[in-house]
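Let's do one together. I've listed all components of the complex below, 790 residues spread over two lines.
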Amino acid sequence: MPDLPPPLDTPLRTLLGPGPSDTHPRVLAALARPTIGHLDPEYLRIMNELQQMLRRVFRTQNPMTLAISGTGSAGMEAAVVNLIEPGDSMLVCVNGVFGGRMADVAGRAGANVTKIECPWGEVFSVDDIKAALETSRPKVVGIVMAETSTGAWQPIEEISRVVHEAGALLLVDVVTSLGGVPVEVDAWNIDAIYSGTQKCLGCPPGLAPVSFSARAMEVILNRRTKVQSWYLDISMLASYWGTERVYHHTAPINMTYALYEALRIVLEEGLDACFARHRQNHLALRAGLETLGIGMAAQEGHQLPMLNAVHIPPGIDDRAIRKGLLDRFNIEIGGGLGAFAGKVWRIGLMGHSSRRANVLLLLSALEQLLQEAGHAFEPGVSLAAAGKIYSAAAK
Amino acid sequence: MPDLPPPLDTPLRTLLGPGPSDTHPRVLAALARPTIGHLDPEYLRIMNELQQMLRRVFRTQNPMTLAISGTGSAGMEAAVVNLIEPGDSMLVCVNGVFGGRMADVAGRAGANVTKIECPWGEVFSVDDIKAALETSRPKVVGIVMAETSTGAWQPIEEISRVVHEAGALLLVDVVTSLGGVPVEVDAWNIDAIYSGTQKCLGCPPGLAPVSFSARAMEVILNRRTKVQSWYLDISMLASYWGTERVYHHTAPINMTYALYEALRIVLEEGLDACFARHRQNHLALRAGLETLGIGMAAQEGHQLPMLNAVHIPPGIDDRAIRKGLLDRFNIEIGGGLGAFAGKVWRIGLMGHSSRRANVLLLLSALEQLLQEAGHAFEPGVSLAAAGKIYSAAAK
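Okay, and this is what the predicted structure of the assembly comes out as:
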């Protein structure tokens, strides 16, 4: 067939960028199970189990916990458009690309959006939010817990308190954080939350886990207007994911298989062990990079373990190093977005990608490329530093 | 792990319902290829090839031909919300569930919706559309080519002429028809079209192929208001799927692999051969069912080959037969929706499910169950009738 493209062939990469992360082989095997119908009793059983596992990972009892049939950004849109009616006010906290995206989504949903901003890489204090709440009196406050564009780790618990004192609902983006650091939907009193599958859950992109509190559902079920999106209308999705099983749209069956298996892997390891692994590999990477003169871009004390935004050393060509990693080592890392373009690399250690072997491989490959580029350091120094972290942990 | 659900296990079904259809084994293997990044040069190459193949299947030169990151209903919503601005008028033709859904989606997008209806199972005539156009003067006319709820095959070409004479844009649903019967985007002058992957393309659900004409893109790029959906905004998606490759959202990588392989299989067989296969298996099924006293529900001459809505014989228990097929034969067929609930079965012969072996298996299983239920016929009669069609074709 000379006029057809070649049969599918794909390279074998090590994914150490901002996501997707490497998909666990068990998840790939689940993806390839033969498709069944979306109303098959066996599929409904899989959905039930999936919901239970999602509740455990989100640490919530919310009945309305499910997977939206789209990627993380569809989860963001679902959270916003179900809570917002035209004319509602929403406060959006912007310290990177994804806060900015949330403000755009809210504006398109008809919200009167108030944005508060802080510099890229920094996080919001409780006082920042309190001050904004005094002037804007929003119905909903939206904030990103793990800014994938900067690596900043935004504390949520204290902010939730002031948001609720002001009578607002709290909407949190945990696309990059879920499965990598603690996320406590019930304990922190989060009203709407969304994530993606392709970060710390080790599943390909394509679904967006979401959860809505009882308070959020009350607001949603008492809307004056229809949700602008039919596809993302939670009250209709509730009838399919709930006990009635009313057909809404055809679910992405094989992606559901994949998420089932990915959640099972996370829960087999245990959430706390999973968080500890993410933290340990982060510390090893960080120790290694420091010896090469490469520091973290996010505010000290607020560095995410799974997304390491790091300063590109002066004189080093961003694209040449990333191209070298990809072409010669099959390693993907991410470049900077927006204000960080050309200035930072984003190194992901997420889900199945968060492994010692990957930390050592990356440091080794980076040393080689940086040395060729004339960057001065003692060869092997970063591997030794990372090794120390692992040795200390093994004792 | 006693508190965890069992490892993923899924039954082996033969999917002869309204979709999903059976996924081809080569497509399952493609799904399970290791994930790569959505900005990887190799992934961008796959996207390019995928777009070329989509254009061939849609029979179009439209640059704006791509796969939306959601199921068919997300494709419907994408087509509607990009063309419609609040206050625009839209004419929607409703003769089943999916026309009704389109009217709902359009209303949520702020359209002034005019619905014209015809009985379930029937199709619209050119005169029906002409009359409606004279009174409503819409910006967009929406119509379903293959009503999955009724099996009715709506002709498009003539309608397109009168729609364009009235200065309107034509939006067509080909979720169930694409790959099973001819769909000619350019020759029929269709402005916006959407499909799903899980019907005649033989791929799991999760992506929605869409295409927009130059005229539609002119309307979209000259909107006064932002598209209400950020996730489905075609002008932003154009920058990712176009030459600039500007990051929009993380694409569903493995589902893209699957669609690539599925389209390659369709094009290897050849579209005309694919349509002929769908037609032949339909004729064999129909001949077999007729001997059992089971007739088609759609208007004579407008019966879709891939979706056979058939009348349940008097005195036969809808659910008992479907349960028997599933539990004893691992065969899924569909029940009726809406006005057809309890009255029709929907038998799909789509994509990889459209095979002789499946027609013979279904007739054989149905004979057994109907006989047990006391329905009178000569055993083997339906298989002989189907066999005649195949024998005639083999000569």
